[in-house]
Amino acid sequence: ILGSKSLKNFCITWILMCITLCIVLPCQLLIRNHDQSSAMARSNISLDMIEMSGFVCGYISCVFYLGSRFPQLYKNFQRKSTEGSSYLLFASAMLGNCTYGLSLVLKMPAAGSFRTFYFLHHLPWLLGSFGVLLLDVFVS
């Protein structure tokens, strides 16, 4: 019982923290965009801020996505069974993550220097898709 209560508290805290971040980041962007004059073209600084916000959202998404499998893994481990799990859900999720991850890999540029930039630019989404695919293997 103590383990499940701790897990629930952890999940609630995690969800509240991420909801707060998901509210604060867009609000900050709106405030910054509102403060800029409408006649002024967007500078590199504001583009960098928007791009960085995209990366932050990508990593938050990755953490949520990876974290979503741990409660199921924990439950299966505690029960020592996968009874009650929807195999169609996990099969569909595995196929979706596999094809999404492959789409990112197959779009990778041929030139070596651009590959590194592309890989780093898409890292949160690659980790999310292939990481969850790996965790789904353990769930199933």
Automatic annotation (TrEMBL):
Coiled-coil region: none
Topology of this chain in the membrane: Multi-pass membrane protein
GO MF entries: L-lysine transmembrane transporter activity
Pfam families: PQ-loop
Major site of localization recorded for this protein: membrane
Domain of life of the source: Eukaryota
Alphabetized Gene3D superfamilies for the sequence: 1.20.1280.290
Protein family according to the UniProt entry: Belongs to the laat-1 family.
Protein name: LAAT1 protein
Source species: Odontophorus gujanensis (marbled wood quail)
